Each structure stands twice: as structure tokens, then as C-alpha cells.
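Morning run. Coffee first, then this:
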Amino acid sequence: MIAALIGVPIWLSWKSGGGLFRALFFALFTTVPIMTVVWLSASAMSPRLNEKARYPGRGVQHYLSFKNEADRARYMGNNKIQMEEFYEGYFRGDIDLKGDCLDIMEYRHDWANFRFNMSLIKYVLFSFVPEVIMHTRSQGKFLNNAHAHAHAHADTTPPR
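And here it is:
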């Protein structure tokens, strides 16, 4: 990724007859698209970290019931649902769990897909990053006070 982030602007600058400042100018416009492509590609190609857990290999319809007919047809068999689409649909009430939530979530790799998609990229770029950049002192105080308040009222009595 670093090679692409540095190499593409330098190559564009070289092809257009520019120098370092033109490369920096091109970097302003190529950084986000390059990072997006790398994130999407890496999440699509990366395998599971380990294969220790064996999953039954059941279809999505074994774990979830869809109220929308189009979704029911779309996620039939081994066609896994994006995790983001699952929780959005679950919170809207369009998806129900067939069984105990803990059991279903334990087998989430059997029915869910964890790849990055464009809506997650949009969230990172337009919600998360601006929040990190614009983090103010008052936000920090609010978060610290809320954290301290939660711990102050927790049961801290040691067991006997």
C-alpha cells in the first residue's frame, strides 16, 4: 500500500513533467482512492486467520429468517449476508434469528460475510476520520467523565 501511495503520485508527476510539488498535489487526489482499493481488495482476498473451528456448513436460511421475499431469495444456501446488512436489517426488524442469539452468533462465519464494502468505506471516511480529526477537548472531558462515572458506581467490593 505504501508503494502505491508514494509511487502513483510520483509516476503521475513524472509523466506530466512535474516535480515534487506536483507529486504532492497528485497525492492529495490519489490517496483516498488508492486506500479504498487496497482495503476492498485485501478484505476480499484475505483468508480466515485459522481453521481451528469447524462450522456445520448450513445455509443462511438455517440461522436467519427474512421477512422480505427479495432478501429471502438473495440469501439462500451458501450465499452469505454482509454483516452490516444483517445488523441493519435486524435492527429494522426485517430479519429474525432462528434460535438462541448466542448460538447463532457463535456460528456467524457460517452465514455472514465480513468483507469491506462501500458503505463501510464511506463511514470511515466521512464519520470516523472527521470525528478523530475534530476531537475537541470538551469531547475528551465528556468521555473521560462518563468513563470515570461508570467505574465509580460499579460494584467494587471484593468477593469473600
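The mean pLDDT is 83. Good start to the day.
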